[in-house]
Every structure is written in structure tokens, then in C-alpha cells.
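This section describes the prediction task in plain terms. A model, or a person checking by hand, is given the sequence of a single protein chain and must write out its three-dimensional structure as a string of C-alpha cells. No templates, partner chains or ligands are provided. The sample shown here is typical of the held-out split.
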Amino acid sequence: MRTALVIGTGLMGTSAALALNGRGVDVYLQDHDETVARTAEALGAGTCAAPPEPVDLVVVAVPPAHVATTLAEAIGGGRGRGYLDVASVKGGPRRDLDALGCDLSGYIGTHPMAGRERSGPLAATADLFEGRPWVLTPTAATATDVLNLALELVALCRAVPVVMDADAHDRAVALVSHTPQLVSSMVAARLEHAEDSAVRLCGQGILDVTRVAGSDPGMWMDILAANPGPVADVLADLSSDLAETVTALRALQSADDDKRRGGAAGIEDILRRGNAGRAKVPGKHGAAPKPYEIVSVLIGDQPGELARLFADAGAAGVNIEDVRIEHSAGQQAGLVNLLVEPRSAPVLTAALRERGWALRQ
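The expected answer:
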């Protein structure tokens, strides 16, 4: 790939353009908002000049509702050898293109499984896709050279290609992405009118559950409007679990011993099912999740403390597999949870204590 045209210079388009431009591809930028395109250009994503000839690959990074018309215009204008989109929904745009009479041999639907809570070109980074799955949804009509161009794009962005059927993809993202966004927003919505005394008790659990609730509502409206059926199906199943859980919790209030036992069994069942589902989520580097030990360290909220902690862990010869930080409410301190392999936990604990760190059991 020598040349590419990126249409849509928001977070995804600009991140792809930055990755391509940084690896020697001549990237041309286009957006319906010229100011946004100029911002991407200023960031080093490419040039807003028109391509002098058809490019090798046209990357369409616009909201799902506009994917088909944008692609149809690009294909009709002969703007590239190959065409792909990066929208989070795949079945609908492909059917829309087919209905518009487009030749689908030069097109492949794709979806990089990466993103941020922020949007726009200023949130873009060249490494946004590194190590992340990038779904490709070729059909029998997809030309081999177009599939190869898509694979080259994925490689240049240092992502991991995953081939799926378009509708299977839409059902999958409804489960692992779109429904969690809605559930996170629903939980966060309970906080809007909560008493300040309750909100002050927020800890790491509520922060984890509501993290994605800070995402742009306009962007998510576009996504959900393009995939309503599969999301509704998942929410319907979730609603059944929720109703059963409510019933079980009410039973725990009963004076009847049998009802209380039944309620406890119902709650335990959902918690155990949750354990089983969580265990299926891929761990580090996509491998099966490992059981890690947690070494909890109290640190001050001041420059250099984290760097010193990691340096001391490195000096002890211990690899930190993951890290989570909990901030103390109203205090200039925090709790850093270092996740390490079980055999490394005693070594790290002893080394950090020797270096004067305050550990929490």
C-alpha cells in the first residue's frame, strides 16, 4: 500500500491515518467538516489536498448511518482500488450498499475493536489499534486483492485480524460492547440525583462499572440505532436475570425460612454465573486469564511516586502483570494494587517492605 484516502477524521479515522502516515503511506484526508480535517492534518495524519489519482485504499470512518452513502459515492467516483469502512456495525451497511446497486467486489467491512471515551481528532493516537482485534467481514464477492489490502492496513496499524460473518459480528458486539455501554450508563444515571453523602462513598467498583458512561451520547446514538435488534435481544435476556434477582432479593426479606433459602440460592446462582462468564474474558496478550496475587501499596499523590514504586519492583526482578489504582476520597493518597504471578508475590512484598513502602494486607 502506497496511498490511502481516509474519509472521516474523527478518533478512528485520524488514528488510522496517523499509523499509516507514520509507516510511509501517503495519506489524504477528507471530512465534511473542513476544520476537523485540518486539525488531523496539523497532527501529522496526512494532507487535506485531493489525491492526484485513485488511491490504493479508501478508508471510510464515518458514523454507521452514513457509511453506505459515503462508500457508494467513493466507489461511484472510482476513488480507489479497494474500499473499507471501520464502523462498529457491519450487516446493515453491507445490505444498504447492495440495495444501492454497488459492486461489492472492491469492498470489505471491517471493525477495529478499539476506542476511547473521548472523540475527535485530538483524541487520536497512532498506537490506538496496537494489539487490538480488528474484525474483517469478507463475503464471497470480496476480491482477493481487496482482502489483502485490508490485511495490510491491519498489519500497519499493528492490530490482530479476526475474520467473521457480518451478522455474527453484530450479535457479538451487541453482547460485549453495545449492551455494556447501556448498562454502564443506566448505573451511572442512578447517581445523577443521588444524595451527596452517598456519592462521596464511591469507590473503585462504581468507577469500573461506570467508566464508559462518560462516552459521547451522540456517537453512541449512531451506533445503537444501527444495531438495535441484537442489543435488544441481549437486554431482554438481561432483563430476565434482573427480574429473577429482584425476586430473590425480596425473598431474603421474608420471614419464611424456605423463601429465604430460595432467595439466597438465586443470588448465589447469578454470582457464580458471573464468575464463570468473567473467567471466559481473555487475559493478558489474549491468553486465558491467570489467577494473580495482589500486592497493595499505599502511596502519596505526588510526582514520581509511581515511577519509584515500579522501579523498586523492577529491581526486585518482579514483572508487574497489571496495575489498578484506587484514590482515597478527600486525601492526597492512593492504593496501588500490583497484580503479579503467585510465586512472585512474597518476593515483591519483602522487597517493597525493605525499601520502606507501606503495604496493606
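For orientation: The chain has three domains: 3-164, 171-279, 293-360.
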